[in-house]
Specification:
single chain; mainly beta; Jelly Rolls; 6-stranded antiparallel beta sheet; 2 helices; 6% helix
Length: 181
Amino acid sequence: MKIEETELPGVLLLKPTVYRDNRGAFLETWNRRTMADAGLPTEWVQDNFSVSKKNVLRGMHYQITRPQGKLVRVVYGAVWDVAVDLRRSSPHFGKHVAVELNEENSAMLWIPPGFGHGFLALAEKVGFSYKVTEYYSPADERTIRWNDSDLAVRWPVDPASAIVSGRDSEAATFREAEVFP
């Protein structure tokens, strides 16, 4: 597995070796030794899976007192995946990184605690899987508006076509949001 730094220190792009032949493909999605050698978590408390249709936009989500590290990947389809640094003490505070994750590239993104996360479904049907380092805590969950002008995320969708939940469309702006120290 190749592990690459992104423009945001700590956010890593993981590219597993994919073995393809006439039967299909095989890849390793997680290996304790590989993760430990890369300094990534080796203990996960929860695995999550979502299914989205094209233009569904989920995010920007994070947990404030029980922050989650997330290892995210696409099982089928494709997404535009975004991580935003929400640590006020970071020199990269408010900056984001965006990558396409899809079933062909089999790439994964490690998003450390202290970052907001969101994604846009690019395919007709997307299966999105992620491991987290902390249990889901509804009382701790926060959301920043996905199209906040201060974040300036360039989502590859016409904003009028984005399918967004009520919670996400009414989320706090970046300037209003409760963030990490």
